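User: two proteins, same treatment. go.

Assistant:
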Amino acid sequence: MIISLFRVIYYIRYTVVISGILLFLIALLISKLRFKLSKLIAAAVIIAIFSVQTVYYYDLMYNETSNTIEDTFDPLVTKDDDFLIDDASVYVMTVMYPDNTVCYYNKNDWRIENTYCAFGRDAYVVNSFSEMKPLSSRVWTMGRGECYEYLLQNGYIEVSAHNIHLEFHNYNWEIILLEKPE
């Protein structure tokens, strides 16, 4: 817990685990101390450190930029759109669209096929573009990397690009819609 004075080690998604560890540490520490006042001071210090980090990250995660993705894409994404993503940080955005087909291009072969398929009913992982299922005529991708180039080579044209900034982890994404003329 002392490390958290110098480096942020708390993430909101770890609350359940860290709360249990924190309560265990407090109980252990209090049981080892001889004086009641020192027990209270030690418990207060641990709780204060944990509280400061929790407030900091809560503010960071739930500030005005936290709804940027929904605000930007909810009016634009249709139920027939597909996602072709090669970045894990953006891939989790597709959780908001569980009825859309999501293909994660696993260019680094991370062995995450089963894990990433949990993001939606029609989510799947490929290690090469040859494994992909046919895509719809509208596909969202991130940046102008391999997925973007693959779509251009297969007759898609860029329709729009949206720059997204989230303060959490200082994410900056360019998410692009491409369409295939019929």
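Protein 2:
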Amino acid sequence: MKSRQLQQSIFNQVKIMQKQIKAYKSSQKGARLHRLRLAIKRTKALIFFAEKIYQKKYSVKALKPAYTLAGILREADLNIQLLNTLDKVPKHLIKDLENKEVHYQTEFVNRSSELLNDLKTFKKKLVLPQRSCSLKSIKGFFKLEMKEKSELLIKPSKTAVHDYRKHLKKLLYVYQTLPKT
């Protein structure tokens, strides 16, 4: 992988986040939140990869406010949809969730400029080394990560299996998002 490709892949995810924040501000559609959270997860996975490859820590703190707020809204939206499909659900329960959703929608819209600025700051502060990454080191990364985490399954518990699943998803995001050259 060429020297700037990883950073460019991360910046592409940041563009997706910016687009989804702007789109949600105007439409308040839950699918926008889903895409926003997915782009954040992909970005965090790529940062995880960069940290392992370059042996350096990079901060993703700037992504947390958007991820958290979008998560609250997404969960409320999905819960409302689910409750509306069920019989004999107390109407006040749905109404309470709808009120919560409206409150957080307003907060998201009001904080959208701040969230976009957080992304700009993240992008500005992120400077990866300008050295290429060999195919051998990329394969080594995946091999080592799979080996290390597979130990969770030796004596599987509910949390171990869940942690393994989360780690596999992270690796999948890295694999899907890395440039294919």
